[in-house]
């Protein structure tokens, strides 16, 4: 089947030929005929399947250009998706003169929208909140509306627009044609379609997987503190064009963008705190190539479609598979290839399994690029720069004479001069990375014979009651954990548990002194509050370690009722407690 088989007019077909579209996607082939016939439609399809063209082409094909009041209203959940739909309409209507499409969304001044509405528009694409504002101000006349589209209806309901959507549906002409598109069919959307749509054709496009087969999906096991260094190495070795890095919160996106800029990359953040004009400017910079890396939250990147995006990096892997699918769907669109890389901490391995089960696609584990791989890439780029410079014949002659002059006057081999010029060219940043240092093995302190179970915690020959010096080395501090010899713990268990839960490296550990009832561990003095929070939930031998800076004084810990703390009670009780979930939508 081709688009010519769908009974579309020649102006639309000509625009599609220029864009390069030849055959309709499954949702387009199934949806366009009933929409051209005037039927209401409910379309169930995942993002990235071509839904926009499925409703835009029939609307453009049947527009009455003489009517100045809006004929079509498309509701979208986000500003970004609304702008994307507007761009698609303008592209498909490229051979129809005088078609006016207006985006209407919050964050943009009313003046621009009011001026356009007064001049007359054929198609309005907007978010529900701003459409309601215009209806209440009586600045948007929908009395002659012929077509109404709900795009990503399930997302609009999740974002709290259910009441606004129903108000708009109820306040528009009953004779309008309605198309509802959604990735899922929850009960609310089912009820809405039964109430506001007239005998709709239900079209479901089943896909073998919920992620595009053109996207290569990989993941990297990395400690939380090492994510930024891992991202930098990946940027060094991956051949990317444009990239989106997803963070879980607004603060994280700002921090990542700032650190990337400090490392010399052109990066910017978009999230809910960024003003709309700045968001649009940033996205346009990404499209034009002035910006290479966009750091975003889920909501801010919803509906973003930029051809340059070759890579998506989940700096924080999402906790639900639907968000994962939406995120990586920003690349590999319209048949293009793409790469998705997810950072996974040791505690998040289960999320990879959940994603693989839901998408029915395997994620390939990758290794952190080594120093040798990074240096190989840097050398290749350096070679390219030399090759380019050699092609500039006029400049080569001039500098060849300069080098020859130096060689004659200083009696230095030409190869040494070339090496010295390379040092000058590299600037303050070394061309090659130094090899990763071998982790230093720290010896455990030699215990005195008196340091045995049942003995005082005293140094050899110290007067009774005088405690051993627990001063840590510079940059380190002594921490006390509530497990000791009585709990049959060994240093390797302590190192393994703290490293896995807190994302610590081997060289973050100093001396470990295991006492009968507790242990002392030498760790960096500047452990962050996040690291301490993660370590506070660590268990060794089934017992909460209750890590805290060591004060040198014994502590008796009870709860408010005078009972032992919860880690001293039955470990089986832990499974009966309900997990606590925190959510931050960014």
UniProtKB/TrEMBL annotation:
Pfam families: DbpA (PF03880), DEAD (PF00270), DeaD_dimer (PF25399), Helicase_C (PF00271). It is found in: Cytoplasm. PROSITE patterns: DEAD_ATP_HELICASE (PS00039), HELICASE_ATP_BIND_1 (PS51192), HELICASE_CTER (PS51194), Q_MOTIF (PS51195). It is an enzyme of class 3 (hydrolase). Residues 1-29 form the DEAD-box RNA helicase Q domain. A motif (Q motif) lies at residues 1-29. Transmembrane segments: none annotated. SUPFAM superfamilies: P-loop containing nucleoside triphosphate hydrolases. The keyword RNA-binding applies. Residues 430-473, 543-586 are annotated as: Disordered. It comes from the Bacteria. Keywords: ATP-binding, Cytoplasm, Helicase, Hydrolase, Nucleotide-binding, RNA-binding, Stress response. This is ATP-dependent RNA helicase DeaD. The gene is deaD.
């Amino acid at each position: 089947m081709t688009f010519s088989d769908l009974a579309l007019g020649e102006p639309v077909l000509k625009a599609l030929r220029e864009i390069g579209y030849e055959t309709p996607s499954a949702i387009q082939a199934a949806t366009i005929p009933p929409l051209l016939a005037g039927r209401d439609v409910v379309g169930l399809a995942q993002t990235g399947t071509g839904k926009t063209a499925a409703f835009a082409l029939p609307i453009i094909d049947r527009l009455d250009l003489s009517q100045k009041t809006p004929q079509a209203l498309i509701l979208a959940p986000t500003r970004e998706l609304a702008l994307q739909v507007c761009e698609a309409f303008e592209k498909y209507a490229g051979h129809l003169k005088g078609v006016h499409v207006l985006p209407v969304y919050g964050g943009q001044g009313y003046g621009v929208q009011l001026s356009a509405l007064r001049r007359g528009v054929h198609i309005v694409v907007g978010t529900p909140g701003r459409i309601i504002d215009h209806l209440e101000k009586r600045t948007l006349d929908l009395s002659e509306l012929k077509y109404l589209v709900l795009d990503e209806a399930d997302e609009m309901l999740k974002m709290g627009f259910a009441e606004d959507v129903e108000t708009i549906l109820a306040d528009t002409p009953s004779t309008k044609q309605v198309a509802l598109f959604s990735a899922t069919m929850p009960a609310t959307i089912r009820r809405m379609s039964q109430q506001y749509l007239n005998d709709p054709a239900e079209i479901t496009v089943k896909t073998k997987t919920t992620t595009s087969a053109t996207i290569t999906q990989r993941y990297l096991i990395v400690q939380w503190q090492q994510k930024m260094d891992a991202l930098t190495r990946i940027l060094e070795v991956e051949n990317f064009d444009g990239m989106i890095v997803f963070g879980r919160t607004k603060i994280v996106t700002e921090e990542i963008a700032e650190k990337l800029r400090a490392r010399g990359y052109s990066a910017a953040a978009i999230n809910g705190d960024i003003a709309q004009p700045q968001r649009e400017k940033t996205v346009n910079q990404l499209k034009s190539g002035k910006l290479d890396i966009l750091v975003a939250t889920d909501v801010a990147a919803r509906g973003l479609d930029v051809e340059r995006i070759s890579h998506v990096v989940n700096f924080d892997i999402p906790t639900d598979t639907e968000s994962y699918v939406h995120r990586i769907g920003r690349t590999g669109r319209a048949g293009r290839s793409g790469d998705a890389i997810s950072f996974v901490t040791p505690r998040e391995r289960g999320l990879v399994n959940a994603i693989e089960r839901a998408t029915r696609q395997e994620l390939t584990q990758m290794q952190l690029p080594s120093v040798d791989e990074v240096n190989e890439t840097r050398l290749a780029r350096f070679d390219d720069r030399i090759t380019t410079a050699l092609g500039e014949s006029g400049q080569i002659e001039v500098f060849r004479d300069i080098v020859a002059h130096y060689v004659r006057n200083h009696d230095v081999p030409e190869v040494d001069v070339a090496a010295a010029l390379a040092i000058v060219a590299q600037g303050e940043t070394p061309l090659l990375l130094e090899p990763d240092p071998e982790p230093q093995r720290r010896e455990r302190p030699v215990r005195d014979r008196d340091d045995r179970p049942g003995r005082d915690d005293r140094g050899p020959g110290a007067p009774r009651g005088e405690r051993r010096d627990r001063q840590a080395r510079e940059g380190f501090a002594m921490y006390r954990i509530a497990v000791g010899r009585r709990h049959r713990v060994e240093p390797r268990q302590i190192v393994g548990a703290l490293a896995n839960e807190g994302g610590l490296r081997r060289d973050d550990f100093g001396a470990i002194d295991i006492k009968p009832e507790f242990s002392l561990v030498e760790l960096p003095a500047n452990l962050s509050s996040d690291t301490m929070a993660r370590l506070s939930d660590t268990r060794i031998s089934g017992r909460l370690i209750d890590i805290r800076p060591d004060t040198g004084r014994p502590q008796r810990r009870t709860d408010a009722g005078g009972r032992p703390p919860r880690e001293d009670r039955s470990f089986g009780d832990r499974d009966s407690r309900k997990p606590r979930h925190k959510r931050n939508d960014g």
